[in-house]
Structure formats: C-alpha cells, structure tokens
Design goal:
With 495 residues, the chain is an alpha/beta fold. The chain is built from 13 helices and 20 strands. The strands form four sheets. Strands 7, 8, 9, 10, 11, 14, 15, 16 and 18 form a nine-stranded mixed beta sheet that branches. Helix 11 links the parallel strand 15 and strand 16.
Length: 495
C-alpha cells in the first residue's frame, strides 16, 4: 500500500523526490519546494509543459539523492487526470533509473475552485500505484523493477483525513493490476477451468463465495449457447459465480463479464493480424472478478454478484457451425450466422441466468465484444448501451470521474429487425457489417428480462500495444475502476 509522509520535503530521505511543476502557478506551500520548482523552470530544456521532465542528482541541502520534476502544463488545463498521469510518469522514470523508492509531493497551494486537494491526492495515488506494475512473469531478466516503496508527501491534517480513501484506492488499484495479470496470461495457462479456479481462489481469500459450474451442470441448466461456443475446444466451458453478501445487505448489483479465454473465431476463423491477441477476449471477465473482490475488500453495503461465463472458441470436428440453431438458457432459439460472434452467445446465457437466479436491481455486463465499437470510438473510449437513461448517465459520469471514459450509444428499436431469422427466434448477427456494436447490444437486451441493465463494450481500451501514462504495454485493466465507482454511486442512491 502507498504510504503518506508529512516530513519537511527537504529532510525526506529517499532515492527520488518527485515534484510536479506548473509553469504559471505556484502549487506548493513549502517555500523550499516552491524555490526548487522555480529553479527547475530556469533550465532551458524544461518549461513545465505536459509530459516534460527534468532530473537533478545530488541536490544541495536536500536529503533525496535525486530530484525529478514533472511538467503538468498550464493551470487552465489542469485536471485530476493530469496529476494521475504525472504521478505515473514520475514512478515509471524512477523505475527506469533503477531507484528503489520514491516520494511524490502532492500540491497543497491555491489550485483554484475546480481542483480539490483530496481529489489531487487520490489521483496521484492512483497514477503511482497503477504505474508501479512490471509484468515480468515470463522474462528471464527483469530489466525494470517495481519500486519497493512509494510515499505521498502531504500536510499532516490531509494525511489523517485521507487514510480511509487511500485504503479504497489501494484495493481498487490492486484489483486493476490483478485484472491486467489475468489478461496478460497466455491462453495455454488460462483454459476456462484454470481461469475459473484462479479467480475463485482470489475471491475466497477476501470472503467472497465462489462457485464453478462444469459442463455437466451447464447441460442440466440448458445453457445451450455457452456450451455451443465451447464445443470445439478440448477444454470445456465453465460458469463462475462470485457472491459478496455483507450483513444487512440492501439490494443486489450484478456484474457479468465475457470470458472467452482464447477466441480463434471458430469455423469462421480469424485471420493472421486479428488472431494473435485473442488471449485478451476475457478482459470483461477479469474486470468483473477483480471488481467484486475489490468491493468486498472495501466493504460494500450492497450484495455484489459476479457471473462469468468462460469458454474457448476453437476449431475442431466438434465445433459449432454457421447455420446451427442453439437454445439459450431462457428458451430463446438462436441461428448462428457467424461463429466469431461468440461473446454475445455466452453472455446471453449468463445474463438470463443472472436475471432469473439473483433478481438484481441493476445488472451491468462488460465485454470485449465488437471491433465495430473500436471503429466508432477508437482505442481509448468504451461504448455504453442502456435503455435506462439514469443508469446510462450514472455510468458515464463514473467513467469521467476515474478517466475510464464511456460514450453513450443508441439502442434503436427498428434495428431489432436486423436480428430476425427465418428459422429461429433470432440470429446472432445482422445481415451486414454496419452498426455491429448496436446490433450486438440489442441481441444482449433480449436476455436481460425486466432488469435495469447496461452493456459496456471495452474492445478498444482493454489492451494497448504502447505504454500508457500509468501502465506498461499490454492489458490495461480497464473497467475495474469504472465498475467500482459505478457501484459506489449506486450505493449512494440507496442511502
């Protein structure tokens, strides 16, 4: 967990003292820190602009072995996200320098009405924790190591007020990092059964009830869609349920996460250029499992349920075929138009089961569902679909708060026509390539019953090939902070 210190900055013994700098505003009350920031701006190579940094080694009259200045940009452009990114940048630079610990100085000067000190501290804590993650599990040499200790410097009064918030932030950030590790794992080490057991074990450590339904139980439950997707694999599908039930729980919030541990596309096989990263097609499942665990650790007041269908979509003589008709858990029949539209099939069974078995007040699913959503919104923004205006607005605002952005998308009734089948109740795809993300969401809506529901398509932001401001290349863990903030907002509604 990140620690707090209120020791005079000049007297802090650390490998690296990280100071954020705004070129047109003094952000720190400490005369020593203000003086250092002004001296940094005297260097021609450092203007304090966003992304700039300056290192000074063995500074005079400072116990820190290194001063690292990170630019924020102009005051008018500052947001908590700028501070989150700056903290992440500072930690990453400390890692590359081979430093074992770092102290980040939280601005405590007059920042204006829009920048609340508590929000800045929280943002910097998140950025530092999320960036201090080095996925070296499969490397023989660990050239970059995570820092052993990270501290935030703030006033003593702020430190006392922030302890509870930091515990929540720590739990959520650890959940995000856990999700990243699950997603980054290669498919040969996370078959449906392996991943179900791994997630269940993690959940039980935090008092969450975990149940794994194998293929025989799925057959008895008549989950024909999930079983069809998993039929082509030597590793049968699983359904993992996670239940956190606090004393005197008021209501149930259900999270459903797509867990395709590897998506070859089935008989509609993915080509080279598309198939290589399909180990990440369980990012929704990872976010859901990590969110339930984090909320249990925090001590959520409501019952939180996670339902995670897990399958491999592979090619074999047993694989389901285009033209097949399968019967979902709720009795609806589905004509298979394309075996690579498999995520919506496993979610169909999971959503219908969740709605009937748990009767939640709110149900949110998260899935790397469609390439069409990436075409529409790019790699940094998730698509958000919900027939409930209030829920859609709440999730959107939660995304803004934590900078896991969602863009509301439509669910037009007339597009339902695109799912019509001549032989079954519906098809799993539309007749053409247009509006693919909308059609997929409309398909899911057929399995939610009357439950208040939202669907979040994270195909874009789930994985990045380049390093992010507070993340290494690879899985982002997108969705954990978003879901946790959404749950917190839903709980506030119940008070």
């Amino acid at each position: 967990m990140i620690k707090l210190t209120s020791t005079e900055p000049g007297r802090i013994s650390t490998e690296t003292l990280i100071i954020t700098v705004c070129p047109d505003r003094d952000m720190h009350r400490s005369p020593a820190i203000r003086s250092l920031a002004r001296q940094a701006l005297d260097f021609k190579t450092f203007q304090g602009e966003k992304g700039e940094h300056l290192s000074l080694y063995q500074p005079a009259d400072i116990k820190a072995k290194r001063l690292l200045f990170v630019g924020l940009g102009r005051h008018s452009d500052l947001t908590p996200e700028r501070f989150r990114q700056a903290a992440g940048q500072g930690v990453r630079l400390s890692q590359h320098a081979g430093r074992g610990d770092a102290v980040l100085v939280v601005p405590d000067g007059d920042m204006g009405d829009d920048l609340v000190p508590e929000d800045l501290l929280a943002a910097m804590a998140e950025g530092a924790l999320l960036s201090n993650h080095c996925p070296n599990h499969y490397k023989s040499e660990h050239k970059i190591q995570a820092l052993k200790t990270i501290r935030l410097h703030t006033a003593a009064t702020m430190a006392r007020k922030s302890q509870a918030a930091l515990k929540r932030i720590d739990a959520i950030c650890r959940g995000t990092l856990q999700a990243r590790d699950w997603i980054n794992q290669p498919a040969n080490e996370k078959t449906p059964d392996q991943l179900a057991r791994r997630m269940a074990q993690a959940a039980r450590r935090h008092g969450v009830k975990a149940t794994i339904l194998d293929e025989k139980k799925l057959q008895r439950l008549k989950m024909g869609a999930l079983l069809a997707v998993g039929a082509g694999s030597a590793h049968p599908p699983r359904l993992l349920t996670l239940e956190y039930t606090p004393p005197k729980a008021r209501g149930t919030i259900a999270l459903v996460g797509k867990g395709v541990t590897f998506d070859a596309g089935g008989l509609n096989m993915k080509p080279t250029g598309s198939i290589e990263l399909m180990k990440i097609d369980m990012a929704g499942a990872a976010a859901v499992a990590a969110s339930v665990i984090a909320m249990a650790e925090i001590g959520a007041r409501q019952r939180i349920v996670g339902v995670i269908p897990l399958a491999e979509n592979m090619v074999s003589g047993d694989a389901f075929r285009p033209g097949d008709i399968v019967r979902a858990y709720n009795g609806r029949t589905i004509e298979i138009g394309n075996t690579d539209a498999e995520g919506r099939l496993i979610l169909a069974d999971a959503l219908a089961y969740t709605a009937k078995h748990y009767r939640p007040q709110t149900m949110i699913d998260m899935a790397t569902l469609t390439g069409a959503c990436v075409v529409a919104l790019g790699e940094n923004i998730a698509g958000l679909f919900s027939p409930d205006d209030h829920l859609r607005d709440l999730v959107t605002q939660s995304g803004r708060d934590v900078h896991e952005r969602c863009w509301p998308m439509p669910l037009p009734e007339d597009y339902q026509e695109l799912l019509k089948s001549d032989l079954a109740d519906m098809r799993n795809i539309g007749p053409g390539r247009w509006g693919g993300a909308i059609v997929a969401a409309l398909f899911l809506s057929e399995f939610t019953g009357k439950t208040r529901w939202a669907h979040i398509d994270i195909a874009g932001p789930a994985y990045h090939k380049k390093a992010l401001p507070y993340g290494q290349p690879g899985a982002t863990g997108f969705g954990v902070r978003l879901l946790c903030r959404t749950i917190a907002s839903l709980q506030e509604e119940k008070r």
